[in-house]
Design a protein that fits this description.
Blueprint: H1 3-28, E1 30-34, E2 48-53, E3 59-60, E4 74-75, E5 85-89, E6 96-103, E7 108-112, E8 115-118, E9 121-122, E10 125-134, E11 157-166, E12 172-176, E13 190-191, E14 196-200, E15 222-223, E16 227-237, E17 256-257
Antiparallel strand pairs: 1-2, 2-16, 3-4, 5-6, 5-16, 6-14, 7-8, 7-13, 8-9, 10-11, 11-12, 14-15, 16-17
Length: 259
């Protein structure tokens, strides 16, 4: 074999090995997830492209496709923490969803007049200004945002009051409010079963989460084996209908940590 041919072969082998390693790295450690809805605003926007750490909580059949993973249940590396932003598989319809972990096994969760209570104690909120965005179709689904300031027209500013909520473990995160007395602003007490978790969206009045029963399209309680991983970082964000429309990328969200 000629020297040049040998060099080409080695280059091809190097590229193939690199692709295989990258594919294995993606499958075992991280999973990309494109945010499709506004349920996690303002933490996550429609069009955010996030990396999900699949190693954060160990493996289940939903986070590892290989036969080395358990057929049922979950091998836990560490327990999820209250306030984590987590991607999980919907227990009924099988879709991938992203929400914030609010309730741990054994917790009692309730919402009264839009305020969260955990184990009977109020979770404090303080005002943090107003979240503003342009009223326009967003993402590939072309959904228009809901606004606290009414049905504004295309091109106008859509407003939602923002608050900072501090969970019992000290995690502080923003939440948005659209209605003073929304459908899920007053709930019964939910007692989280062992081995399950309770999730809510940060955009509190626009999130089908654990406050809604699975029988009516909600999330309900989520068993541990349905957790895929923790959303750790926004790699980039597209305000357009496709992530390929680079001219619509939001430059202020590159490599932004998810908090």
């Amino acid at each position: 074999m000629a020297k040049n041919e040998g060099g080409i072969v080695e280059t091809v082998k190097t590229v193939v090995y690199a692709l295989l390693i990258a594919g294995l790295f993606r499958t075992l450690l991280f999973q990309p997830f494109w945010i499709p809805s506004e349920s996690m605003k303002s933490t996550l926007l429609i069009g955010d492209f996030v990396f999900v750490n699949k190693m954060a909580y160990g493996y289940s059949k939903y986070s590892c496709p290989f036969s080395i993973c358990p057929i049922s249940g979950r091998i836990m590396a560490s327990e999820p923490e209250r306030g984590d932003v987590i991607v999980f598989r919907h227990p009924v319809n099988g879709s991938d969803m992203v929400k914030r972990l609010i309730g741990l096994p054994g917790d009692k969760i309730q919402v009264k007049e839009g305020i969260l209570y955990i184990n009977g104690a109020v979770v404090p909120q303080v005002p943090d200004g107003v979240f503003e965005e342009v009223m326009e179709p967003q993402g590939p689904m072309k959904n228009r945002p809901r606004c606290e300031n009414g049905a504004v027209g295309d091109g106008a500013i859509c407003e939602k009051p923002r608050f900072l909520e501090t969970l019992p473990n000290g995690v502080t995160h923003p939440v948005l409010n659209i209605e003073a007395d929304g459908f899920a602003d007053n709930t019964d007490v939910f007692t989280v079963p062992e081995g399950n978790y309770f999730f809510m969206g940060d955009n509190r009045d626009n999130s089908q989460d654990s406050r809604f029963a699975q029988a009516v399209g909600g999330v309900g309680f989520v068993p541990a084996e349905f957790l895929i991983g923790r959303a750790d970082r926004i790699m980039f964000s597209s305000a357009g209908a496709s992530m390929l429309y680079f001219w619509t990328w939001r430059s202020d969200r590159f490599f932004k940590a998810v908090e």
